Structure to design on (194 residues):
């Protein structure tokens, strides 16, 4: 596991564990990159840590550790291995499923990773280097292929409405460590593997 992935997992863990109460009852966003100190403890950044049980109206099975939750406003987006991307309210109540798993048009088979664009409220699912795009209600919008850029995408993330694809560089046919795409699949920039 690379240092970058470890930092990402730490950030995700901290983000999930802390849920500071505010008068507006909003989610608290914490970015450890803005700290001057090198080490912090949870007691330094959170007064209260709460646990939210998820609604059991939909049968849940496996959640892989590399599918970390995403958020749009107070909705929580999770990937369950057999069902796909699910949306829960902050209270834990099940809201809906995003798209559907399958082999048909607009469906995804694997959902190797997903990310959300908070600005446009769209969800991007990596389905073996084919990116499937859905709106927050779960309706399929479009898809585009990134297969021509490398063998396997490890993860995708959105930042400033740009899609970052991180490739598994151990494969021969992977010339780039990562590529930045616009939300239609056009290359903006890339970093070559060394």
């Amino acid at each position: 596991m690379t240092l970058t992935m470890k930092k990402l997992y730490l950030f995700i863990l901290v983000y999930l564990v802390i849920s500071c109460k505010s008068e507006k009852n909003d989610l608290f966003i914490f970015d450890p990159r803005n700290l001057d100190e090198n080490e912090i403890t949870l007691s330094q950044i959170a007064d209260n840590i709460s646990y939210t049980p998820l609604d059991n109206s939909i049968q849940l099975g496996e959640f892989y550790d590399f599918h970390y939750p995403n958020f749009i406003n107070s909705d929580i987006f999770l990937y369950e291995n057999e069902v796909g991307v699910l949306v829960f309210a902050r209270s834990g109540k099940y809201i809906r499923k995003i798209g559907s798993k399958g082999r048909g048009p607009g469906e995804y088979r694997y959902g190797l990773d997903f990310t959300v664009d908070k600005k446009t409220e769209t969800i991007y699912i990596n389905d073996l280097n084919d990116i499937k795009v859905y709106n927050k209600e779960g309706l399929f919008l479009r898809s585009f292929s990134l297969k021509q850029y490398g063998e396997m995408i490890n993860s995708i993330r959105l930042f400033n409405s740009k899609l970052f694809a991180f490739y598994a560089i151990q494969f021969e046919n992977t010339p780039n460590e990562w590529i930045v795409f616009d939300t239609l699949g056009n290359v903006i920039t890339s970093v070559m593997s060394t």
About this structure: The chain has two domains: 1-51, 53-192. The first helix runs from residue 3 to 17. The CA atoms of residues 74 and 90 lie 6 Å apart. The helical segments are 3-17, 42-45.
